[in-house]
Specification:
CATH class of chain A: Alpha Beta
Shape of chain A: globular
Order of helices and strands of chain A: EEEEHHEE
Strand order of the largest sheet of chain A: 2-3-5-6
CATH superfamily of chain A: GTP cyclohydrolase I, C-terminal domain/NADPH-dependent 7-cyano-7-deazaguanine reductase, N-terminal domain
Structural class of chain A: alpha+beta
Strand content of chain A: 35-45%
Distance between the termini of chain A: 29 Å
Radius of gyration of chain A: 14 Å
Largest sheet of chain A: 4 strands, antiparallel
Number of helices of chain A: 2
Largest interface: A-E, 24 and 23 residues
Helix content of chain A: 10-25%
CATH topology of chain A: GTP Cyclohydrolase I, domain 2
Oligomer: homodecamer
């Protein structure tokens, strides 16, 4: 199971608000209906509160989905919820982009808190 | 005839608002005037209410237009109307992009409900 | 002379507002100063009122500029005026993009009515 | 010296507001410190008042910077000031994009008057 | 250590507000955990107050990070703070884009002062 | 069934050898196993003998595959055989490129006669 | 009618063999069947004998096809024949690339003399 | 373990030589040293003998590497050997392209039999 | 006048044959007929004999064409002749690519000595 | 100093000839004349003899150039010589591509042994 306890955090280096975006292009999980692998890109954008997520732990956390059967929408909302709960960002967006399956590309956008208009990725 | 009863739905996995976009690059129907095939990309963007559309059923629904004689504008409005009626999204956009015919590319954008400014695809 | 009577129209298929964009990449007219040909892309974006412009007639209308000596700005404003007068859209934008001449590319944007902020092409 | 008297103008062909953009990809001047050539792209965007700038004269005006020693910022502000003074646009933006020097690309954006939010190039 | 005293400034050539953007595509520092090199692109956007930063000195300042062990977030906030303190811009954004490490690309956006909505890079 | 009698030909306009390539980006047929549509690009390259294929008839011939259940390899070899038989080119290549299905893209290359080394598309 | 007497030539500046390629992206003629305009790119590659074609005269020659009804193959072979006859190159290739019509792109390659293997454009 | 018995074959539909290329962009295995996932694109090009590989079985065969610890070079040679043994192509190339790891991209090219010069992918 | 005495050379660092290519994207000279500036990219490819050209001196040499009125063909042959004479490469190619003038792009390729087939840029 | 003893090797996994290409996009060294950093991409292509180079050791070897003052040509020939000596490939190419300095991009190609025509990168 995806395991949020893998995630590590470090104190934000600045009290002045700033924005962090990590784009992971090597996400893979399994389709719960067919068992076939899904491939996606996960983007995490946030304005840190007291803490920032450590990059290597984020990678291991994403790798823990490798053999999970889980839908696109659930991946996106799970990541949003687990990251938000662990590090309490001022705001956060999790955007997942999925490679073509049956002629479709899909994007799911989940939001935590109030994203300033100019920073929304739609 | 395009058959909306093909469409299947599943309960939205999150009460927190989020956005779903499906892009289908393999849409084809027939021009009602000439009988020649039209080729387009269909984008469906929406914020789910209680339900989300299931991807494979959406594909079959789109395939049911394959031998229909129907104009660009009617394709777009039909999909918007049938999807909106079946799943009652908080808002939805259907955007169709059509390959060149006679030196023209065309895009049709149909909207259901009130799309937040930052999420409008224009 | 460009002849707007070539244009044909059909009733809008939906009372719900929607947006139509036609991009014509094969426009050519003549420079009135030098007689050399100009090449451009014409984009027509609009929210239909009661009527939509028929695509083949729009193509023939654009072809009627082929041997006209006319400036970029006049092409743009003429198309905007003649289309707006004939089909009374709720709003319309005509955008012309001209290939390089003397190291320049040019774009002219003419507007009819009040375009919603999110739909402006600038 | 850059010579604004080269510039020629013609009456705006429409009383209805519209926007003109000219992009010149072949601008070159000299760095006043090193004497080495600089290469840039100059974009002029404006809503005409009574007059529009004639394209060939704009080209000659830009060519008059060829052997001038002048900084990026001064090129941009000079063009903005001289064009604005000569043709009194309702608003204008001059944007200069400079090729890499020492691993840098640079962009300077100078504005005249009040540019509508949707038309700002940033 | 990164040395802000390397930075040189020149008086802004115009009292009319304008915007300057410098993009440096050859930034490198060291990861403080692994010692491996990081590679990034640094974008500095600002509206000058009384002074502008001189480009060659900015290059030398960026080169002074070459053998520093420093995190992405600290690079970004350090540059923002040191530049803002030295030249008091009306507003400034520092945006850093980092090449893939472990399948990730990252972007950090730090802001000084109040950036007009239309000029925010997100 | 794909019907080669649709094809029309016209006499080659030159006795000097030359090469013709037609690329059709709107080919669609059905997968004989699943019934799902396949989408591909068909390239026909040849050096004409006495005759050239007429473009509109080639389009109608390709459209006659629309509702056929037929594999990629059979599409390619059928087109090669039927075209070669009808117009006796000096040499011909038929190249089919198929959109992704299950994470795969495919290309099939069938040849008729002896293609000069420099003209082979591989 | 396309008029090869428009073409002007100048003596080749070097006795050492070299290659010249001119790519004209603004060619237009008319389809002799439908009367609709065709748009193409014409590439002329050659190794000069005693003479080179002057660029402005080549442009005027190409413009003389503007209102001619003529097929792709005939355009290509006509240009090859008229240029070869007028300037006797050591070898020459004329390559025409035509924009999409009915879902097709087309390329015609006509050759004069013996093109060295490494210089063939296929 | 990668299991070549999953592979299925069908008789080649033509006695005339032709070439088949399948590109799979969703290959993943594990690094045997670190346990981290590798991501690659596998290209199989071949001229069939009596048999062709069935696409869905090829996909399942590739998926059987998902949780294998195996080096790039071994993946490539294993696929070449197992495919060549099972279907005896006239010639075959297996090309693997691997996403960046530590700032590297890698390509491995393994060949079976004698590939005609013009068909080699290098 | 272009001044080849500006060019400096350094001894080739290896007796084993190797190839050097320098691409200069900021070349400008003047059209001798119209006086308007031309802009091009100059590529110099060669296998050194005893000497290599020093990069900064090559830049200054290219800058010495800035205010020369000289045709494309003459620029190319002059650079080939002056470089070949000064450094006696085993072989050399000079390739010039010129930006659009009147809807044309042009490339001139001049060769010195015998270029191995695989190294020819055509 | 660049230290070839860092390099590690592993036995080639196949007696059948095959080709390996590693592309490192994060190479940096120092210009020996100016002390400014150079940035390049290093491509190593080879057919292994008994041994293959281990990827992580190759990365550390490349990182050992970070603070070396060394010319492009010397980097290329040094890597070719040290790799060839340590692992005795059947053939090898080292290709270095250098980012723009003073408006130039450069490529150096050094070869060891006899590269089959079809595998040469030029």
């Amino acid at each position: 199971m995806p395991d949020p306890t893998i995630l590590e955090f470090f104190p934000s280096p600045s009290a002045t608000p700033f924005v962090i975006e990590h784009v992971h292009e090597e996400f893979t999980s399994l389709c719960p209906k067919t068992g076939h692998p899904d491939f996606g890109t996960i983007t995490v954008r946030y304005e840190p509160g007291a803490q920032c997520v450590e990059l290597k732990s984020l990678k291991l956390y994403f790798q823990s989905f490798r053999n999970e059967g889980i839908f696109y929408e659930a991946v996106t909302n799970t990541i949003r919820d687990q990251l938000a709960q662990r590090m309490s960002p001022r705001w956060m967006q999790v955007i997942t982009d999925w490679k073509g399956r049956g002629g479709f590309r899909s994007r799911i956008v989940a939001t935590h808190g109030s994203v300033p208009e100019a920073f929304i990725r739609a």
